[in-house]
Amino acid sequence: MPDDLVLIPPQSRRRWIFRPYGFLLPALVVMVPLVFVPCIWAALVSVQDYDAFERTGKFIWLGNFVSALSGPLFLRAVLHTLYFDAVFVPGTLLVSSVLAILLHWRRRRGALLEAVLYASFFVSLVASGIAWRTRYRPDGGLINGLLMLAGCEPVDFLHEPHLVLPSIAIMNIWRWFPICTVILYAGLRRIPGDVREQALIDGATRFGVTRHVTFPMMRRPGMICAVLLIVISLRGFEDVYVMSRDGGPATWAITVPFLMYRTSIEQFDLGPAMSIAIMLAFIIGLFVFLLFAMCKSHFVPARGGRVPEKDATPNGHRHFYSNRAGACTSIAIGLALTVGTIAALVPLYALVSTAMNPSGDWAWGIQGLWPKRWDASALAGVLGGLGGGRALLNGLLVAVPAAAVGLVVCTPAAYAMGVKSFFGGASLRRAVILAAAVSPILYIAGTWRVAAALHLWNTRLVVFLIMLAHPMVILALKAYIRSLPPDMLDAARLDGLSDIGILKTVVLPLIRRGLVAAGVMLFVIAWNTLSVPLALVNSSDKQMPAAFAAELAREPWLPWPQVASAALLTALPVLAVFLLCHRLLLGEAADWAEGKYPEGRQNRGQG
Q: How far is CA 571 from CA 82, 141, 347, 602, in A?
């Protein structure tokens, strides 16, 4: 029997089963017409020969699926997606594993490196893609500057058929390895300290302990990261959209998510597009539920108790820091982490250096590293003449209210899903998980129909409404609420507090940090969103910052300083928010990474 039903009198249990829908109502009012109904409409369109302009169609059942599977472009997109994952997933795991091990070997937490990693993660994929495009360019990019310094000819990475996908994969490795580092570092902190100490007593070296103890015990978090990265690669299209314009040279960069976007949003061929979206959603759903099952089994503390506090004791390092070899190892670790910090900062610095150098004059032989003269004229031109100022204002008008109102909408829904059992609750939780995981293209086409019917198309309000009940924020708040001690909630019920009273006087004060983190998450999601404004906003006066920068990046006539300035304007607000809240965000991540689970989570036995 669930914990929250133990103390409920039998006569009120039936009323208790349906009462949570009052807390879910604000979120359902937003999600049902803008997410769930469009997903059902997409499933219906996938079996029709649908005319998007006439809004009519006739059933052809599996005809769209057959034509999509037999099409040469779909087969090429599948092969490119597999090739992309073959570079992206192992590369991200390798970088994050090395960095997690170095952080674990280090006595002190690398606060600067953690801040830099999280800052790069907060930058949108649009800004990250533009930053890497400036480094890949053949006429002044840093990578080609290094190649020319070594005596090689410059290479146009994004226009060479066999190099465009690996180049995009490298950008994604840089974008996503911070979150994998946190997960792997959590796995390292869960290794019992007595296992490593026994290996040291038996004469093992640090590298021997890493090889024979650390790597085998990192297998489960490594699998979690691999599944998560596969879901990420199947969900987004922004990287290909920004870096390769139209799928690369001869469509060598086209992937399944980008094919789905181009077929639906650009070509309005909704039948085949929705059939691809349904197949992709089914595959993503399998991976997502596998991911949740693995996370649940991994993050449950062993033996029903806390993670051993002895897992990172100084005694485990004393053997290495007592001699010269240990000192050399410590210096090598410090140098490696310093190099990692610089590597994480270089693409962000690329935006600044390119945006502030409209003349193209450079002081050093490696082009694109340090301009002779800093000039903000390109930045001012993007703010004024190209409409960057309006895009920033639109972003603030949408993201700030969405973060504030979204917490009011999402928190009651997360409370109901986190501590209550109700009719249809399991199905609703699965639906929210899938809505958070599948590509937004699945429901954007149907949302366009709803927005047109409500006269919300081409308005900032439709973007605001979609961001209000974001599934990711609901799931994050649900995790915070589930970590609360169940005895405290039961005691509040015995004291006669109503559900609203428990939420107001018990739950909200205990999850203040989680509310701030969720608010920051919602602001960043609303600010960085690309697919929603591209599909639902047609006027440049109402465009969001990420869509504004992405559209400028696809213009072949625009100089590089203007493109970099647009990306810089997109990145600066989220970086400012991160700097204001970085102590709280890093503290939350460190608590989870070090296995400091709240007592309530251990009592529940949930991940």
A: 30, 20, 12, 38
Torsions phi, psi for 130 (to 5 deg): -65, -40
- What is the rounded distance in angstroms from the CA atom of residue 337 to the CA atom of residue 320? 18
| Dist. CA 357–CA 115, nearest whole Å | 27
Shortest CA distance to 321 belongs to which of 494, 103, 545, 107?
107
pTM: 0.85
Q: Which two tokens stand for residue 254?
A: 């086209």
Residue partners of 276: CB distance under 8 A and separation at least 6: 68, 74, 256, 259, 260, 263
Average pLDDT for residues 21-48, to the nearest whole number?
A: 91
For strands 48-51 and 56-59, give the pairing.
antiparallel
- Within 13 Å, how many C-alpha atoms sit on residue 316's CB side? 22
Task: Examine the pLDDT at 605 and tell me if it is beyond 50.
Answer: no
- 129: enclosing H helix or E strand: helix 125-136
Are the beta carbons of 278 and 97 closer than 8 angstroms? no
Phi-psi region of 61 (alpha: psi -120 to 50; beta: other; left: phi over 0): left
Cα-based torsion angle of the residue sequence 260, 263, 265, 268 in order, rounded to the nearest 10 degrees: -140
pLDDT tens digits, residue range 363-394? 554 555 677 778 888 888 888 878 889 999 99
Quick one: which of 231, 246, 240 has its CA closest to 165?
240
Give the chain's mean pLDDT: 79
Q: What are the tokens at 557?
A: 């006539």
Q: Per residue in 219-278, pLDDT tens?
A: 788 888 888 899 999 888 888 998 887 777 767 889 999 998 888 888 888 888 899 999
